[in-house]
Amino acid sequence: MNETLSKAERTRQFIIEKTAPIFNEKGYAGTSINDLIQATGLTKGSIYGNFENKDEVALAVFDYNHTKVNDYIKEKLMATENSIERLLVYPAIYRNYLKIPFLRAGCPILNTATEADDTHPLLKEKVTNALSFWKVSVENQVKRGINRGEIKPDTDPTEIAVILISLIEGAFMQAKVTDSLTELKIAMNFLEKIIVSLKD
């Protein structure tokens, strides 16, 4: 934890880090104040002394979980210059999500979206922005690949981004519901074929 933060900021960060996996696994409605107390070892008064309510904790936790996933993906993307290899990072990560501690409970975008679509407008807005960020990121990778002569010039960046996200999130949902990785692996293999077919 960052020592340059104030005691209050460190406590807030501690609460966020300790409760992040619980919110991702149980969802907003399924996470109780007792879960937060148990995860942090803090009293209800101490938690609500740092956050106005559970909503505020949930919003901060979503940002934390989303940033963690983004930073992990970005690190993998930056490890290679080739545009096709960068796009192949996505199926590689999500095929092996059980080996990544903060993804074991599932994708925070999917987990939050399925719950917050109608019941929690602020969380829904966070998810909408996260999806938009992901879409633009993939579109930019495709555009970069076209400019570098690594991806076919007639490739539609938006089409690829929408298909990639839909395949990943749909396969993730099936894996969670069935407790089986079969459909996820099939979808990620198919996504790899789509990406490889973009080579110029």
Structure overview:
The chain contains 9 helices and no strands. The protein is mainly α. The chain has a domain at 59-196: Tetracycline Repressor, domain 2 (Orthogonal Bundle), CATH 1.10.357. α1 (7-30) crosses α4. The model has no long low-confidence stretch (mean pLDDT 89).
Gyration radius (Cα, Å) is: 19 Å
Strand tally, please? 0
CATH superfamily grouping of the domain at 59-196: Tetracycline Repressor, domain 2
> Sheet bearing the most strands, described?
none
What form results from the Cα inertia axes? elongated
Task: Report the average pLDDT across residues.
Answer: 89
Q: In the CATH classification, which architecture of the domain at 59-196 applies?
A: Orthogonal Bundle
Helix content: over 70%
Class inferred from helices and paired strands:
mainly alpha
Low-confidence stretches: none
- CATH fold naming of the domain at 59-196: Tetracycline Repressor, domain 2
Strand-residue proportion: under 5%
Tally of DSSP helical segments: 9
CATH class of the domain at 59-196: Mainly Alpha
Order of helices and strands: HHHHHHHHH
Terminal CA distance: 45 Å
Protein name: AcrR family transcriptional regulator
DNA-binding region: 32-51
GO molecular function, one term: DNA binding
Organism: Runella defluvii
